[in-house]
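ARCHIVE CARD
SHELF: 3
SLOT: left
DATA:
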Amino acid sequence: MGLKVLHISKYYYPFSGGTEQIARDAVVALKEIPGCEQLVFAFDHGTPKESKDSRDVVDDIDVIRCRCFTKISSQSLSATYGRRLKEALDEFKPDVVILHYPNPFGTHYLLKLLKKRPEIKLITYWHLDIVKQKFLKIFFRSQNRRLIARSSKIIATSPNYVEGSEYLSSVPDKCVVVPNCINENRLVTDDEVIRRAGELKEEHKGKTVCLAVGRHVEYKGFKYLIEASKYLDDSFVIGITGKGPLTDDLKAQAEGDGKIRFLGLISDVDLRAWLMTCDLFCFPSITKNEAFGLALAEGMYFGHPAITFTIEGSGVNYVNLDGVTGIECPNADSKAFAEAMKTLAGDKDLRSRYGEAARKRVIDNFTYATFKKNIQALVTGL
């Protein structure tokens, strides 16, 4: 009989999110193991009014989705979750469960149900600590300790996160580092992308083009990049993609600064064109909510040096190596960030050397091929 794996993710494709993409990458990677059967269990990602219990198929794998009736602190709640998870365990009879954390509501039911199923191996995919919601952080401390005790293995996305996490650092022998992977297919530079990049280069001819990518939320640190711009002259252009709850505040902060370009939610073609065009990749995240930095790895994949802040316990400083693939600055120090931008803008050889090393680091460590090998070895080696 083959291996049976149940994946538990907060949401799942077509929902677009970093954790959900990694969950899907893991499912697709394990499909290549002969005889491996899989099932995905998740919340429905529709609004509470639209949400419903359902079952569908993604990448030829069944996906069970549970109706969400409300959300509290980004956590979905479902009246049917416990019953449907029990049914999935009883009917599918998995050998291995891969739980994508954080998901406190799902973890509550899973731990309860696994008490009577000691034969099931549990892999906890630890994407990040709960750091923002201080009350929840304290409330779920006991749950997290029980989760760690029940886990056969815990996946961390970088050694930095193992060392910096209150929980993972207590069980280093259980932790396995599986770095996240970029989607190389999404980053292909076809004729349309090359044409668009040519237009952008002509538009910004003679300028040092800088790019920052991400949702406009506090931990992404865009306000520090905008502050850094005040220390730069008009030879710089800074493109900022995305939107979010802080978009209006950021635009107000940047008012009158002609160097800043808010690009909004751009198409994949435009994103790749900007990634081709830029000279520097700016990644100003400031907290451990940024556990890894896939957008950072994508920028480095295009051969650009990166500029980041020091974030204790985050994988950001594992992806970008100070003095090797880019420059790391003291956390939230906008002036230091601006100085790093000036240094790289003024030294073509340094920019080229860091950029080449950045691309090599991503190709050697953060591609799907490496991810697939790591996740398959972990699951089959239990």
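SLOT: right
DATA:
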Amino acid sequence: MSIENILEKILSHANEEAEKTLEQAREKADQIRKEAQETGNRILDEAEKKGKEEAELLKSRRTSVAELEVRKMRLGAKQEAISKAFDLALSRISQLEKQEYVPFLVKALKETGVDEAELLMNKRDRDGVGQKVLDAVNDPEKPVRLTLSKDTIQAKGGFVLRRGLVEINSTLETLIDGVKEEVTPEVVEALFGE
């Protein structure tokens, strides 16, 4: 056998071996590619599933927060309406006609149980109805002695009784605040039907 034949055989054998190795490498690469594709698909599916779960959770949280904000806004609006209702009541009482306002103040004065004190009012009430209130309360046959103070108070209406260092605050603001808790359910019912 000649060297050329031997070389040709060796080359042919090497080519066959190279072809086998290449084929094995292709098969291995295909297998790796297939496994990588499966792993990638599985990771994508898991990520998609997790993403959907997180999106649902986030949506649920945001919905809850939005619902809470709506409830807060409704509550705020209701509280504002209730507050306005009490402000309106205060305003209407302070603007009562004299024939209604004087008996109201007289009744409030009598309910204090004080028989001797200085009566302080806002300037408008002192000048407008102060003496009428005193005349109605200071019955000559009874020991009640109230005097009208020259001092005035900052209030929408009502009065403060002062006896020495003790003061009884019966301003309209205080009277309204005193009944707020009790009448708020009725105000809520009237305003909102609740």
